[in-house]
Amino acid sequence: MQEGSLADVVGVPLNAELEEMISSIPDAILNCISKVNSKGGMWLVGGAVREVLLGRRPIDWDFAVDLSPDEMIELFPDAIPTGVAFGTVTLRAGDDLIETTTLRGEGTYGDGRRPDSVEYSKSLVLDLSRRDFTFNAMAVDVARGLLHDPFGGGIDLQNRCLRAVGDARLRLGEDGLRVIRAYRFMDLGKGNLCSADLQLGKSLLDQQHMLRMVAPERIWIELSKILAGYNAGVILHRMAVDGLLNRILPSEWDENDTAIIAQMSSHLQGISIEARLALVLTNAATSGLEKELKKCKLSTSQIRRVLNLRRWVKNLPIGKPEGKLRVYSHLLASDLNEVKRMDLAWADAGGEGPSLAECIAFHKRLSELSVSRTNGDSLATGEWIMRHTKLSPGPQLGALKNWLHLIQIERNLGLLDEVEEVLCSLPWQHGDWKQWPNLNQYF
User: Fold this and answer.
1) What is the CATH number of domain 12-151?
2) Per residue in 339-357, pLDDT tens?
3) DSSP code of 104?
4) Please, are residues 329 and 336 in contact by the beta-carbon 8 Å criterion?
């Protein structure tokens, strides 16, 4: 392979894991590296190096180059100018897309979000010195088989220590998003929980105000990764202790809050981010919550699911007849298992509501229900009801269909003839249809 520019920082031979990683790089990407190296230098950087040192396969291939974006596009005419203003060009490498960013020099961050200007550089060590944390500031010279680690990121990774590159307060002050990114990088997966060093820990408290400068959607992207993490409960607890949750979500917590203690429960391992967030928000004020979640830039479907899951926590129909249990299962549908785990976690934390024993007994009753005779859809269609009642299309027809569907679920009816018998017994011709039982307002 063509060797490119020699880095201005000492390199050491790769260990076995990094050697194996290089051998797994697709030929199309290796060809791109050789092509860039014929004109300059190209180094594998960021998450890929960190992931390999953690014993995992990298998901993305990100590279730093010492060619300008214009030079990269000239070298690769089919490249995608994804972020030329900030030096980023995406290359097509067979079936892969690889992101390349031109080495950067010193710069200021006046708005606490992005550099005021981008100054390109030929210095790898200067570029790495601008990165957030030491184990994200490593680079691999693929052609020469060298690891460049000027800030000791590899050792910090071994020691499970999260440390800023240089002055922690300065690094966090450059980009407010780094505050929440620090909490995300405390969780590097199973068996890989990191602790911030003293300087970074203090700076995380001092620089929380920088998050005011960050767009809500960027904060949500980082928070969603935290919620999905293997050690999410531990990280959320730390965020509550540090007061960070109070800055980014619509409520207030401390380390003794049941919603925070519940996050540590093993019942939540692998649960969806919406379910975990719903549990965090269990005791948040309902009024205005949807509006606040919109401000946090969750998608409409995510907001709907969070609010629905939150509604069911602690709301178990314990001691109710079998029909109510059937309706409960029907309304939760695919979310039933998530809510079960949320209830167990809440009870584990000693939260107000059913005890752990009561939750377990209730879940046992649910599992003993006979199999539903339908897929859950209403057997009676609007057209069928109109034929049997002479009702015209409208809200009364919809209300009657909903009522019949509710009874179908309660009694586990499986045949339309059974629904017809029910219809004949209902006083649907009398009274206010707005007062009829409603499946969606059953609990």
Assistant:
1) 3.30.460.10
2) 999 999 999 999 999 999 9
3) B
4) yes
